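Predict the 3D structure for this chain.
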Amino acid sequence: MKYNLVFILCFLLIQANQAQIVNPKTALTNATMSLDIYETDQSQVAELSKAKENIDFASDHETTKNDPKVWKYKGKIYNRIIFDPVMKMNHTDAALVAIKAWKKGWELDMEKLTSKGKPASKMPSKMDYKQGFELATRGLYNAGADAYNAQNYEFAYNCFAEILDIKSLTKEGLEKKPVDLTINGTMDLEKEGQRLGGMAAAGNGQCDNAKKMLLPMLEANMIDEELAPSTYSILVKCYEKASDLSNAKSLLDKARERYPTDQNLLISQINMALKEGNLSEIEDKLKLAVEMDKENVELHFVLGNVYDDIFRNNMEAGKKEEANSFYQKAIDWYTKATVINPEHYNAVYSLGAIHVNYSNSIAKERNEIVDYKDPRLDELDKEYTALLEKALGFLLKAEKINPKDIGAAIALKEVYARLKKYDEAEEYGKKVKSLQGK
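Done. Predicted structure below.
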């Protein structure tokens, strides 16, 4: 009998709980009451959870889903969830839900006004909408930034994209007191959201969405000058990865026109020219750029570095004749850089490194000769030694420019060992360990 009584009581409790949310209008009322309790005492997280449960029910129900009041309260409740330290952990999409709720409420209220022949300026609950959109935007930006940093590009894009139409959506209804999407009047969440949204779209392979967001900003100089070249590069690489070379090339041409000395853009353009078998045309443009900026040491060094990369790639592929051509071009541009600035560490070090790399190909060729009487052995030995001695001179100069660079110390240890100068090699071995902190 007792068991039956317990069962009946449990059944009645379940029925009572279900009854609390069976009526959608009651659910709305309960949601507003729970929200009021939470706002009075934010330690009452259970009330915020109840508010969420009830408002979700009301917004999904046929009889209340077209009531703008439901959506405004849904926006308010989810705005609270965004910034509640407990609730936000289990509802990472709260900002997206909030902004969509505010937009839905706005849309429904606007439909009511239109049906009554009233202007948008008569929009009810203006301050609720203004504050609701502003708070939801902050939540969207924070959630999008966190997702972007975690490389969750799809979610980040979805967050940032929702920010971009808020001003245009509310312009008429909130004309006198428009939505403020800045933080303390300084950081523009709409502008930064558009930039990061474009970057997130590119990271997710949505090249057209990325271009739609980023290109207008680039062309209007809305992106900081120091970030603009890398932003172009991100767009170019997105289209390259998608095998859309037409768009990639078009963007790259625009970028190079604006930033002719940027290293990453320069390398991208040369790599694309190589893919198309059109390097000579690019070389002419590069030489023209140098002529226009003859004292730009970085441009000279970058050209040397690009040719150096092409040299090594050809050497690894066994294309010796092509490799030799780019080897000499790399040396020429590195040398020109050192003429402009004799203390340019990277150019001096690279001159040493490229001679070492070329000596590797000579050593490989020599090792492939099996006839020890072959006269080429002596010639190759002399060439090998001469290259290492040239490398040594440049590397010692690089070390003088930057004595604490471990790269130069490692290279010098290797070169001395190859030249069979073992005492010097041992000394540089000690220096390497010292620089490594061992």
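The CA atoms of residues 24 and 58 lie 5 Å apart.
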